[in-house]
Amino acid sequence: MPYPQSPRWRRRLPVPLAAATAVVLLVSPAAATAPQPAAPADAGPVAGEQASVVEVLLDGTAELDALVATGVDLDHHVERTEDGVVAHAVVTPSEAARLTAAGFTLGDALYRPEDSRARIAEREATIAAHVAENREFAAAASDPTAPDVSDVKIIRADYYTSGTSQILSVEAKWAQGQTASNTLTVERDSGPGTAMGSGGTQTISRFVDAGVYLYHRGAATVTARPEYVRITSPTGDVAVAKVREWLPTPETSPEPPGYQKDFVTSYLTPTELYARIHQLAAEFPDLAEIVELPYKTNGYRRHAQAVLGAANASRVAVDSLAWGHEGGNDISVELANPGPGNATTGVTVIGSHIRVNLATDAAGAVTSTAAQVVAALNSGAGSLVRAYTYRGSPGTGVVAPAPRTPLTDDLSAPASVSRDPHPVYAIRIGKHRDGTKTGVLAYAQEHAREWVPPLVTIETAERLLRNYAHDGRTKQLLNNLDIWIAPSINPDGGHYSFYDFNSQRKNMTNHCPLTGAADFLGRDSWGVDVNRNYTEYSLFDGYSGASSSCTSGTYAGPSELSEPEDKNLDWLASRPNIKFSMNLHSSGNYFMWSPGAYALPDRTSAPRPSLADESFFWGASSRILTAIKQHRNMAVTPARTGPISDVLYSAAGNSGDMLWYKYGIYAWNFEVGTSFQPQWDEAHDETMEFANGLVELMRVARDYASDKKRPESTLTIAPSSTPGMVNVTFDVSEPAAVFYTLDGAAPTYESTLYGSAGVREGGETLTVPAGTRVNWFSVDAAGNVENNYQPDGNGKNYRKGQAVLPTS
Ligand SMILES: [Zn+2]
């Protein structure tokens, strides 16, 4: 938890929509009999009441039917649990009271009117802040008394090498960027002391997402490292910035001679990944152990299925009741033409073969419709199969005779891949695995088809374990950290992607209804996007970048944390000592953190990290990306580094956001490499370079855990364009928060937190009356306070200054 001492600085958590603020209205003993089949006669809307979404806890299907019969507004969510059925009802307080009076048991309120109000208030605050920021920038830029203020501002100018290329990446904000579509031209010098423009020019383009202008950006190949760049905006305003080097080569390698690495030689299936970590834990029992996570998956298994017929209205879909490997695959279905003479529809079952004799007219033509065949199958062979018309069709089409057709689960993995609900494993690495050390979590393969990220976790685990005995720096990591590595969060989908459908992204669980895509032909589209099923800023909270369609690639599932894969990660993240995490995906060579979601139409973002947290993310990121680059000089670009929703897109309900917002974990996301399943030489290089980065994350965590260094800060006073005022900024020696007062009071954690000037920018400029007393202190991510000041005590050793211009 960053800066845990600071109640004010603690991230403003969203209103807990799924919080257990229960309106639990327990059934009284008298009412605890079977519910009445219908609500009382006075049931009806009460004007002026707002509705909540409330769980209704039901014993079983009969009680569900009784609930439906009351006519209550259900939101389609019906979940069958071991204890019965949970439905969601959208009810007002008086409707809830009537349900209770009728004998129903209500559970938690999942969404309340105050949730909506809080959402709206948050949205309005965000919009207001955005508008204020733009107005401030535009006003400053057009202030004739302020010749020093330009309408264009260079946010970043990064020079870096990647492969054999030299590249300059520039980001700039222009006050007219929301409304004017102009590109901006960047002039370069060609090194120290050279003329501006001598290094050529490049153009940068608007980065607009969800209709909101964020900034201009663009990268170009250069032939020399510029020292300065200049942008002249379309209105003639000018901005100049010094070029920084992005990911410079460090002077010393963190890997001493004899450091062992390069442990993977091929892609590994989830079964093989788990076997590998079991071997490692067995080989290093003092340093590692295997943890089976609490939830098994639903399993690499399906029911055996077939769809008979061609035209939708005459198609018959058939599913075995047994799993395919438990007898379903032995079942076959035949639609037989019995020949002439007014035959009636009939079903015979011989062993596991189901023969449907179709009805005919006097001339011997088949007359059975799909709906009739479905009914005949369900009544004549209902102990073996379930039949239904195709995708909600009424089934009025006459079926065609079909030869004996085997049902199949269509799963091709060898028998060595278990068909049972699958355990999910993590390897826990560290000399002291008792929760007393700073925890680090790395996890991969939320998305099944991403085959390189699991290898990065295996390579990292082996480097840590095999170098412990002879490398002092590795020993420091394992002696001081509690490292959790889960190489495959989604083993069912992972197996499916190896053996059946290479593009599988989601898990294998079929949430489609029989009237939808539940049939055999829908099988490659089923599944929940495991990385959209988490609890923070999700689809269910109104955020963008996930789908409610069961066949969508970003299907968020029926509810938050509906999937065992997601429950497992939630359990891992709730280990109280975990402070850092890496969510490994592919591809794109991105490196990202929160916020990862926004709501449309106004792109209302999840809360941004504080300036200090953002600085910490950037600082650690530069270490991690430098380590990655050391393998083959591949640079993750500055344009692909930053908050997910700044550099990529919104991903509602992703795991990184859950770890950051719900658990206060510094949570990063890798998008490894260039494709999901690259050729092995490339996959191997990606594994090596991102394992460098993951080991460096461990070093970041180690430095955090041992950080006793106090931050130092300085106050800078500059002239303001407003008479009688001066501009004040703070600088800190390391990523650290600054709390300040302007009224002479001692600063505390309740004081104002120094903020960011804007997206991807540094600290804000405070404009205050000349002579203002400024009192402040800084505190770093590990909780070290400048000067050892105690903000909650009576000490006077905070920093003090006065907002007066230095005399020259
Ligand atoms: Zn992914």
Automatic annotation (TrEMBL):
Q: Where is the Peptidase M14 domain?
A: 386-694
Q: Give TM segment ranges.
A: none
Where is the segment annotated Disordered?
399-418, 787-808
Keyword hit for Hydrolase: yes
What is the protein's given name?
M14 family metallopeptidase
Family, as annotated: Belongs to the peptidase M14 family.
What Pfam families does the annotation carry?
CHB_HEX_C_1 (PF13290), Peptidase_M14 (PF00246)
Q: Which UniProt keywords apply?
A: Hydrolase, Metalloprotease, Protease, Signal, Zinc
Presence of the UniProt keyword Signal in the record: yes
Residues at the active site:
671 (proton donor/acceptor)
